[in-house]
Write a structure and sequence with these properties.
There is one protein chain. This protein is an alpha+beta fold. The protein has a domain at about 80-255: Rossmann fold, CATH 3.40.50. Helices cover about 35% and strands about 15% of the residues. The protein has helices spanning about 5, 10-20, 40-60, 110-130, 140-150, 160-165, 180-190, 245-255; strands at about 90, 195-205, 210-220, 225-235. A 4-stranded mixed β-sheet has the order 1-2-3-4, sandwiched between helices. A hairpin with a 4-residue loop joins β3 and β4 (about 225-235). α4 (about 110-130) runs parallel beside α8.
């Protein structure tokens, strides 16, 4: 007997018949899902965005916030009387000087009437230089008209402006009599309606430095209704130790600036 039979073993072919060989399937090959490389343009754009984000975050974290820029004030001069350029305006003479200034300038003016006439001349010249010499009526013309017919006209140097000097002038206020009637007569004779009225001259004194400047208080009056249309002050720019003609010229120039540009 063969050993295989003695050991109880069957021949290989018999074992294979009992335990057939199982064929395991081969593992499936996974498809290649590796993404294609990015386009050069997209890659460059992505890199730029990354660098910008890094720079922005660094700047925001380390730099102080920019200071807000304060709005710059307008340098254009204010011209509250610009609407008078095309109208016929009667310019009354300056008649009064405020006394009692701390530097005693008013007390040192020897001839007040001549001082005020110089101011009238400077105002007339400044406005005439701006092209208003033909359409506006000035104190010298008012005086000539009164001299030719004093019984019908009004003496421009005797206007009753005293109440205006003591009052706070506001737009819409009415001037009182007899000034209201005097102004109506002036505009009727000279074919106008508005009167630019120099209320008083005064001196703006710097108590600490002892210097001062000449100033003029004015009112624009609608003579037909007796209403104040505007009121304000003009002051010389340069300060000095006395009220000289240069300051009067400066006051007249600044008054003209309220109407039109040089």
């Amino acid at each position: 007997m063969r050993c295989d039979d003695r050991c109880g073993k069957r021949p290989p072919d018999a074992r294979a018949a009992i335990y057939p060989r199982i064929a395991f399937p081969r593992p499936l090959r996974q498809p290649d899902v590796t993404p294609p490389p990015p386009h050069p343009v997209i890659r460059a754009a992505s890199l730029s965005l990354l660098l910008y984000a890094i720079a922005t975050s660094t700047a925001c974290g380390s730099a102080d916030p920019p200071a807000e820029t304060a709005p710059q004030p307008s340098t254009a001069p204010s011209r509250p009387l610009a609407g008078l350029v095309a109208q016929r305006v009667v310019v009354a003479p300056a008649l009064a000087l405020r006394e009692g200034d701390p530097a005693g300038w008013a007390a040192r003016i020897p001839r007040l009437r001549e001082f005020l006439r110089v101011l009238d001349d400077e105002i007339g010249a400044a406005l005439a230089d701006r092209g208003l010499g033909q359409s506006w009526v000035f104190p010298d013309q008012l005086w000539r008209g009164h001299s030719r017919n004093p019984s019908l006209g009004v003496d421009p140097y005797r206007l009753a402006t005293q109440p205006l000097r003591a009052a706070r002038l506001a737009v819409g206020d009415r001037v009182s009599e007899p000034l209201a009637s005097q102004l109506r007569t002036l505009v009727a004779i000279h074919d106008g309606r508005l009167v630019l009225l120099p209320v008083e001259v005064f001196f703006d004194i710097d108590r600490a430095g002892g210097t001062g400047r000449t100033a003029l208080r004015l009112a624009l009056v609608d003579a037909r209704t007796s209403e104040i249309r505007w009121s304000g002050e003009v002051k010389a720019e340069q300060r000095g130790t006395e009220a000289d003609r240069a300051q009067l010229t400066d006051v007249a120039t600044r008054l003209a600036n309220l109407v039109t540009a040089p």
